[in-house]
Description:
There is one protein chain. The protein has strands at about 5, 10-15, 20-25, 35-40, 45-50, 60, 70-75, 80-85, 90-100, 110-115, 115-120. The termini are far apart. Strands 2, 4, 5, 6, 9, 10 and 11 form a seven-stranded mixed sheet that branches. The chain has a four-stranded antiparallel sheet with strand order 1-3-8-7, with no helix packed on it. Strand 7 and strand 8 (about 80-85) form a beta hairpin. The relative contact order is 0.32. It is an all-beta fold and about 120 residues long.
Amino acid sequence: QVQLVESGGGLMQAGGSLRLSCTAAGRTFSSYNMGWFRLAPGKEREFVAAVRRSGGTTYYAGSVKGRFTISRDNAKNTVYLQMNSLKPEDTAVYYCAAAQGYSGSHYPFWDYWGQGTQVTVSS
Length: 123
């Protein structure tokens, strides 16, 4: 079992930056691939980014590539999502996810989820 807690969401104007954090409870954080997804009203859950166990390989959705950066600190059991050049369409609840054997964009294959943190970007 992995318990995930997100933080760092909030209200930001377009063009601004936010950094989300997700801290995992447990001693096996480094054995999990970590990802971020988001859910906006009226839309399906959307893959945002993922990072493999060692942190050496990352993946991004096309809509955020070049603006968002995922990273992890295994010593702190934490994964981050640095979001720059925010747009109103980035408004959503952002969820952290963990999986031992998967790091792709299909959310049913992720094993554990956080409770989500709201990000609102005003125009």
